[in-house]
Amino acid sequence: MSKIEFPQNFLWGSATASYQAEGAYKEDGKGLSIWDVYTHIEGNSKNNSNGDVASDHYHKYKEDIKHMKECGQNSYRFSISWPRILPEGRGKINPKGIEFYKNMINECLKNDIKPFVTIYHWDLPQSLQDIGGWENKETAYAFRDFSKILYEELGDKVELWVTFNEPRFFIYSGYLIGNYPPSYNDPQKTIQASYNVMLANAFAIEEFRKSNAKGKIGLVHSFSPVYAISDSKEDRIALRNADNYFNNWVLDTAVKGKFPQDLIDKLNRNYDLSFMNKEDLEIIKNNTVDFIGLNYYARALVKAYTIGETVLKVNNSGKAKQGSSKIVVKDWFEMVADPKSKFTDWDTEIYPRGLYDGIMMVKERYDNIPIYITENGIGMVEEMVSGEIDDSPRIEFLKLHLIEIYNALSSGADVRGYYVWSTFDLYSWVNGYEKRYGLMYVDYENNNKRIPKKSYHWYKDVINSNGSIL
Ligand code: BG6
User: Fold this and answer.
1) pLDDT by residue (tens digit) across 186-223?
2) Is 396 a known active-site residue?
3) N-terminal to C-terminal alpha carbon distance within the chain
4) Cα(229)–Cα(446) distance, rounded to whole angstroms?
5) Ligand 1 in contact with 345 (CB < 6 A)?
6) What global pTM score does this model have?
7) 382 is catalytic
8) How many C-beta neighbours within 10 Å does residue 389 have?
9) Alpha helices in 121-260 (DSSP H)
10) ipTM of this predicted complex?
């Protein structure tokens, strides 16, 4: 292989999300989010942990940005806590919330780090959940108004925006699997919430284009490129069903402005889609993204559905639970585990090649649209030994994925940046603090002290060499 060299203007970054990083959950006028409420209910998260303090990024962001700078990173992806800006989800603005994000952005710019803002990374204001959350179209209108405030307040300094982080993941977890708030197990509600989120995405893009904000706007998708175990007719049908289930309703709708017709036809047979209307669909059609963010953790390998009820079992329990996940969607497809593959402690397949294939799929389907790899990383249980963290498996993981990105660039894909998940260890939703992803270790027992891991130093060398050490 010839020497690896990423494009000169490539963005090298890392990412966080407000609820997982900031803490300060009641400070400076912030309202409660659904996650604040959910994690305070016993039994909802690992060891009943919560993001009250998280990694204390609210107080340590300057130090964190300094670490990014020293690592050579030139972009930082973070999200805005909606209830920090609008404690009730709508109405009165909390000036301290605006101030916090202005400071964060200024600190990035001072350090030549391009801020990449995610408008929504799952921390819906509880007051909006109280009116029905994403099932209620009112929430989509509230999101539009929230986005407008952000463009007005921050739009002169931010060039990269995304409306949502992973619609598929938070909707399915909250409405279909039920292991995230609002904890439903209901396909009809899932469909309605999905529709409202894609409508909200279009509303926010419409507002963006009306505003004076500079830059570009996209959406981040939890990308599971789908493979079938064979080329039989049945498996090919399963592949298409799974692709609609995992990817197309988000990507097609965001990029082409239209829900996949075969998906709508299939859903129409069993569910009530009367909430869809011409006016909304017109808004969705006319307000599509400038780029796509892909979060890549694993692919989906599927075969034809055979028998039995829908099972959606995901592993949030960690170590020694490999083999405990199962996804069967009745009449659609069954997911299978490749016995030859390696899996993380949390049962996620390690499959770097899927990133290459996935990028190429997106390139082909969506007319060479610009792509950012907005998350990629591996969750592990880690311990400090003599003050150091040797996370060599993470280095290997990131390295293999970066090589696939380079291969995709060499095949003509327009990949513009890469963000490691995560900047430092974070609160991992219902997995609590046990599952670590960071380039920097957070010593939760010791004032949340940051300690760069081996991967931090390695990432610095990758960036400094523009990829050639890979
Ligand atoms: C992505 C999310 O789906 O995966 C992150 O955008 C999340 O917020 C990450 O933390 C890893 O998932 P988990 O559950 O292992 O923390």
Assistant:
1) 999 999 999 999 999 999 999 999 999 989 999 999 99
2) no
3) 11
4) 48
5) no
6) 0.97
7) no
8) 21
9) 126-129, 137-154, 167-171, 187-210, 233-243, 249-256
10) 0.99
